[in-house]
Amino acid sequence: MERRALLKSAAALAFATAGEPLLQAVSPAIPVVDAHIHLFDPTRPGGIPWPEKTDSVLFHPALPPRYSRLAQPHGVVGAIAVECSSWLVDNFWLLDVVEKNPIMLGFIGDLLPDTPDFAATLDRLHRSPLVLGIRYGNLWSRDLGAAVKNTEFVSGLKLMAQAGLVLETANPNAALIAAVLQVADHVPDLRIVLDHLPHAEVPTDDAALAEYESNLRELSHRPKIFVKGSEIVRRIDSRVSLDVSSYKGALDRLWDLFGEDRIFFGSDWPNSDSLANFDDTFGIARKYIATRSVEAQQKYFWKNSMTVYRWKPRTPEQRQLRPKIPATP
């Protein structure tokens, strides 16, 4: 099924010619903000809801010092964590971890906008500038399409928009993309990030595929919709491909739709370790973006993340990324 879906997706989305050469290097002077990592600690009292204890790859502490050792050799100067727990209290655990580690520019929490205590909890968390938004989508048995029909849910999203926070979605498929379009209709001022869109489940049925592509095109016309270039690497014919040409067609299609101002980098570490190590995961993104201009590379690797999340620098390396303000004549 995955192979059939991939072939159908490639046929529908790949516009570039197979013979087009791929550059092999990004300017080493370009710093990187990794806008999608997960932090958790299985050794905590009480444990964690994810990953499972049986997952020998992921069930180890994933904390900023370990991430820094892997990422900083690649020019990563900052990262944004995305909550991977449905437990309300873990938002405060994550806030504490992020506050203590300056490489972390902030985090995306996990709250339910239709619950009675949402406004109060959001207010409490948002007292910290490190709280950048929340995530809601195809995880923890949630259904964004059903939720957006709830007036309390929409009211919660409007509070987020008023606070300048971001809504991230998870694990895209046709239903989720359709739901995001409804959210954008209800709350047009809300900035929305489509996580993992390179790894979306693309319909194989012709009619469903046409609707999916139509919805993506409509979203591409909404200036507050952004795409996170996370989960690029995948299995092809039961094997993990580390050949960037395997992904170029679909990535070009997203680039053509959303443009260089609305796509940005995320590694999905350590979840990405299930398929490839950090070096290889980062390498695929680096090789792909090397086909673009230096300005586009800068937007992809750090500028666009600043536009989306409005993060504040915490280290000298991060402060160097602030846009230069022209001197008054």
Q: How would you sum up this structure in a few lines?
A:
The chain is an alpha/beta fold and 329 residues long. It has helices spanning 2-13, 64-71, 89-99, 118-125, 144-147, 151-163, 174-186, 206-220, 245-258, 278-289, 294-309, 316-319; strands spanning 32-37, 76-82, 104-109, 131-135, 166-169, 191-194, 225-229, 235-236, 239-240, 263-265.
Share in helix: 25-40%
Rounded Rg = 19 Å
Instruction: Name the CATH class.
Output: Alpha Beta
User: What number of structural domains do the residues give?
Assistant: 1
Low-confidence stretches: 1-25, 325-329
Could you please say which CATH topology applies here? TIM Barrel
What's the helix-strand series? Answer: HEHEHEHEHHEHEHEEEHEHHH
DSSP strand tally: 10
Largest sheet: 8 strands, parallel
Across the major sheet, the strand order is 1-2-3-4-5-6-7-10
